[in-house]
Design a protein that fits this description.
The chain is an alpha+beta fold and 306 residues long. The protein is 20% helix and 26% strand. It has a single domain, classed as 4-Layer Sandwich (Deoxyribonuclease I, Chain A).
């Protein structure tokens, strides 16, 4: 089974005015006019590049963040993924309308259920997750065989100057995530935790809020377990105002070390984007190049013997 983690960067896609004509024939202007929403649709070319990335990877499940709600994800699956995937999303606590969602290949031989944690209580001042922990159960004959937990941890932005780098909230969100994880361990099935962690959660130089992952559990980053070279292990490129460039891994897929034998290391990697002609887009060395990519995050793909 191939599982992809992908921040789709503002995947809003509303098509309430679509007349069922081929989307490939639509200009960008007509593409935008398909929607009566206050949110602009993500550009047609970027949607096509994202879909091309997913289809080329052969992903069975996509754990997607920054989804513009269930309608956007359903439209993306229907019109851009050849209706090959079931789209599952639920409203989150996001104040920007960027929710979480799963794309599940319809040929996958599992029954699926999703569960929200938007009301999961966190200590003050957090109270609730800034988005959600969206749980997906994979079942056969009603029995849970594996569980996925999808998360989008709050960013480091602190616009109110009330919590430096959002540190307190971020620590509490990780603590809540680990509580949900630990409460499922009695099921004795593989549990995967993936999504956008908005910070460095790797084993080396671990940021403060993520240290509890290694102190309280045996969870490991699959990219690390698969021994992907460190110089290739990045999902985000950051440019400072002065133009300095930093590469970071902030998108992760974790699994318990006891299930490390399920990983197919040679089939775990960070796919790089291609243009619509099938040529690799350069990994940005300038900020302007980053804007060409279909998302400001690269995906991560893991292959597991589930």
């Amino acid at each position: 089974m191939k599982i992809m983690v992908l921040n789709a960067q503002d995947l809003f896609l509303f098509m309430d005015k679509h007349d069922e004509s081929s989307i490939h024939e639509l200009t960008e202007i007509k593409w935008q006019l398909m929607s009566s929403s206050l949110f602009s649709n993500k550009s047609k070319d970027k949607c096509l590049m994202l879909s091309q990335t997913i289809l080329n990877s052969g992903a069975d499940i996509v754990m997607m963040t920054e989804v513009g709600g269930p309608e956007s994800l359903a439209n993306f699956a229907k019109y851009l993924l050849n209706d090959e995937y079931l789209a599952m999303s639920l409203p989150s606590n996001s104040d920007r309308g960027i929710d979480l969602g799963y794309l599940i290949k319809k040929t996958l031989s599992y029954e699926v259920d999703i569960h929200t944690h938007i009301d999961f209580p966190l200590p003050v001042p957090a109270r609730r997750f800034s988005r959600d922990v969206l749980r997906l159960d994979l079942k056969q004959h009603g029995e849970i065989k594996a569980i996925l937990l999808l998360v989008h941890i709050k960013s480091k932005l602190d616009l109110k100057n009330a919590d430096f780098e959002g540190r307190t909230r971020r620590i509490l969100e990780i603590k809540g995530l680990l509580k949900i994880y630990k409460d499922l361990l009695h099921l004795k099935v593989p549990i995967l935790i993936g999504g956008d962690f908005n910070g460095h959660a790797g084993e080396r130089d671990t940021e403060e809020e993520f240290r509890q992952i290694y102190e309280e559990t045996d969870l490991k980053d699959i990219a690390y377990l698969a021994q992907i070279p460190e110089e290739e292990r990045f999902s985000y490129i950051y440019f400072t105002r002065g133009g300095n460039r930093f590469v970071q891994q902030i998108d992760y897929l974790f699994i318990s070390e006891q299930f490390a034998h399920l990983i197919e290391p040679s089939e775990c990697y960070f796919p790089r984007y291609m243009n619509l002609e099938g040529r690799l887009l350069p990994v940005p060395t300038k900020y302007e190049q980053k804007n060409i990519l279909p998302s400001d995050h690269y995906p991560f793909l893991a292959s597991l013997k589930l």
